[in-house]
């Protein structure tokens, strides 16, 4: 089987855009990819540090992957292996993979690593247990558009329940950190435990967005006074209470994480990470659809907490106004899981603004290139039409290859037993 | 504001403290404000209106000071300007209650929050037990104790027959046996004292002996007019059923090359299963 795969011709892609989704689709479908012309015309050509770091993570959670870079880093050939999770002996110690995010990746939030890893986790052969740490581990949302780790936990992970993936999933924020300014480090720590692996995710039918019935949220501050939390909560509640009385926003204040440094002559050998505050809001509808908003103080500061709370509340209202059952942050995850589901038509209603993003459209094209069937689109129609589009996705029916082998083994054993 | 302040000065403290302003003699100045006139007219017809709440002292004092100022527009520096404005970012009506704590636990744990966990639990309020209920529970407890005593009476009597004085609390081996009985009454499959492996004949004899002893004890008790514990229904003896033989089951036919071939014997064993007495006796 391995020989067959190595003979398989890689799929060709160009450009650095959508690199992560392509690598994910390659890993899930088992097809090798060759991505060329990665920032070839840029003054800083090739893969960036966070992209190579993500490939490192892919290497850690899979077994038998082959990764080849060109000399300049503008061409990447990736032959995926089996997703083994945090199996002992393959980069994991004590059943936990400790993945370090170096300081150069501090522009990206940890959710940039977390969300793709969560997509891989249900298709893993064994349990997935990864700790992200290091100077570049930012748990808050960032200016680059990454959501906070809180939002991943409260707005993206609950969606896996719709696919029949709900047990033993945890996202522990061990150390909070904010996006650092200048040359500082972040030093956050997040642990993802994803111990519910499935053969095939269930087919999703999500057509009725329902009405928002409750709003929850977290206001967090790192190394700044707790009053910032209260001010953010006060402002956000002032805006949202009119619409949904069932609004609870919780506060979490934590000290800045200590980062060990190697500079000689420093008294303690440790420096404090970046400081800041932010807010993550989640609205849940009567049918279990989730909308989220995420705003964080900029690394250089200068924005009062009230303003952050207000922005976050308005952002949530904007997300809700986009309609659809899945918001833009979670849409790639949901669509990818649907595409990897059983050979059955799954349907999901998306808002036009959510669907018409570059990311989603390219995902649709890429999933077709990777051997999936094309997606179907139609107007939702109905009584309360809010301009939604129903996307129909036929699953590949391949699902979890590691589980499949286990399954066949088990069934063959029983046959032997019967005779 | 100045003219009204001037008006207010004429009302003395006693007047302010009075329950109603209606009986106060109207001043002859004729410069009563309209509201007072209306008020008096209303109170003459109906009952007196409730008095205005008494003003705190510090607010009255500056009004009297302004009397000296006379007609100057400047009313002095007000004390309120020196106060630091305090904004509380706390919802006053928003109290931390049981429900919110449960919400917080559900949302702030490391697990992804579920909508089911957030549903408010309906709080059950404990009622105070009244007299009738108390006696009822006491009766039930006594009844249970009596049943237990009856159940263990044979153990206790055996124990007490050895010693000179009668005992009500089982001790030693009798206590173990009574515990075992209790477990069985609660649904344990078998007694812990049953030996698991032994020759079949021996076991059969044991069962027989136990049954005979029990029957004897019951008949003796009945003759003597002693009330015993209710007899436990013995489990129905499973009739030995003939094994279901059908196509697809084990040991039916021969599976070779993807086909299941049934021999004549197999067919007969399936079709002749229902008929009784047709086959030769003594032959399976």
TrEMBL record, chain A:
One of its GO terms (molecular function) is RNA endonuclease activity. The lineage of its organism: Eukaryota, Fungi, Dikarya, Ascomycota, Pezizomycotina. This is 18S rRNA biogenesis protein. InterPro entries: RNA3'-term_phos_cycl_insert (IPR013791), RNA3'_phos_cyclase_dom (IPR023797), RNA3'_phos_cyclase_dom_sf (IPR037136), RNA3'_term_phos_cyc (IPR000228), RNA3'_term_phos_cyc_type_2 (IPR016443), RNA3'P_cycl/enolpyr_Trfase_a/b (IPR013792), RPTC_insert (IPR036553). The keyword Magnesium does not apply. Residues 13-343 form the RNA 3'-terminal phosphate cyclase domain. One of its GO terms (biological process) is endonucleolytic cleavage of tricistronic rRNA transcript (SSU-rRNA, 5.8S rRNA, LSU-rRNA). Residues 208-321 form the RNA 3'-terminal phosphate cyclase insert domain. GO terms for cellular component: nucleolus. The keyword Disulfide bond does not apply. Belongs to the RNA 3'-terminal cyclase family. Type 2 subfamily. Keywords: Nucleus, Ribosome biogenesis. It is found in: Nucleus, Nucleolus.
TrEMBL record, chain B:
One of its GO terms (cellular component) is nucleolus. Signal peptide: none annotated. InterPro entries: FSAF1-like, Ribosomal_biogenesis_FAF1-like. Residues 62-72 have a biased composition (Acidic residues). Residues 40-58, 87-104, 232-247 have a biased composition (Basic and acidic residues). Residues 1-134, 232-284 are annotated as: Disordered. It comes from the Eukaryota. GO terms for biological process: maturation of SSU-rRNA from tricistronic rRNA transcript (SSU-rRNA, 5.8S rRNA, LSU-rRNA). Residues 1-11 have a biased composition (Basic residues). Residues 21-33 have a biased composition (Low complexity). This is Uncharacterized protein. It comes from Clathrospora elynae.
